[in-house]
Amino acid sequence: MLKKSIPFLLLLFAFKTIQGQELTATKLLDRSIAYHDPEGNWKQFQSILHINLEMPDRPTRKSEVYLNLPKQVFGLKTIQDTITTYRKLENGKCSFSLNGKTELDSTEIKKHRADCERTTMYRNYYTYLYGLPMKLKDPGTIIDPKVEKREFKGKEYLVLRATYDKNVGTDEWYFYFDPETYALKVYQFYKDKTKNDGEYILLTDELETNEIKLPKTRVWYYNNNDGYLGTDDLEKVVDINK
């Protein structure tokens, strides 16, 4: 009786192996997007993100990030200690103010990086990280077709590797997904992996707005020594249209 059961067990094992191999990078990404943005609302995102950033030996930085994706309008107000800055990018035009003052001298402009290049960088930063994993569908993103199973900080994940066209970016990114829910739990990037540089970011808790699940708390560390960089907390999201 035992001998007869062996071929069946082998067949069952083979079937499970094939099932596991069926999860391609495309399917994993689609499942994660279905978890975070089941109604496909990200492209119409119009809200203000209220974010508190805690860093070692620095005062808390409070940010209000204005994102109107359909109209391509970005605004960022930051308050840290006694300094309040506001920058905006709309229709290719940038503006900047420092404690309410818009006429700045060259020293102030340099110190606070009150230029359009910096504002564009902030726009890309916030729309990319809060738009994950949906942003991995953007043109210029190259997803490795292989899904890797990896243990990271004592937990098992399904991992996607992403690189980018040269005109989009040069960093190498890894995205870690919960193997059961497909929620995005960690992301990690390298500028030069051979040097183990770059950072990893742990995502905990979620805040749901307009049926989109956003990471509430992100904790940042260096790859090379696990050094703590900071924690940003998404305090609330305010719908622009309400």
From TrEMBL:
InterPro entries on file: DUF6503 (IPR045444)
The protein depicted here goes by the name Outer membrane lipoprotein-sorting protein
* UniProt source species: Spongiivirga citrea
